[in-house]
Amino acid sequence: MTNRFEELYLEAEADIRNSSYHDAFLKYESILYEEPGYAPAHNSIGWIYKTQFDNYEKAKMHFQAAMHSNPLYPHPYFHLAALLVDLERFDELKKHLEKCLKINTIDKAWVYYRYGMLDEISGEYSNAIKNYQSAILHCFSNDKIKDYQADIERCKTKQEIAKERSEMN
Description:
This protein is mainly α. Helices cover 80% and strands 0% of the residues.
């Protein structure tokens, strides 16, 4: 049986799918006015701030509020990680990922994939490959495993190019 907040939340999610962001935003605000600790509403309103307004600080605040309200609710962890990548706050992202590894409801393959991305961005291709391999070991989706294998191949290519460049100099 759903409560009124859950029903309103589902309506707001339908609004998002219909690109009715204003209506969804008002519903999320209404939920948070009456239930300030409702993690799904914080997460979704954070997503709106990030994707529709490019207001990263308000988005981060809502993602953090969602994580604080319900530490096992996984979605704000994913969105905060994406926000930190967008802002190139890589040290902050590493700390966030360390926290994510300790949360039961978070897909560990996703965490290792993000670690791989960080290493790849910084040109640490061997470490990136190791993290993508860890992602594979924690993964149960054949499609995702294929994606991680492609990530490994991309890093091997970059590794070869980087080696060739260093030998030229």
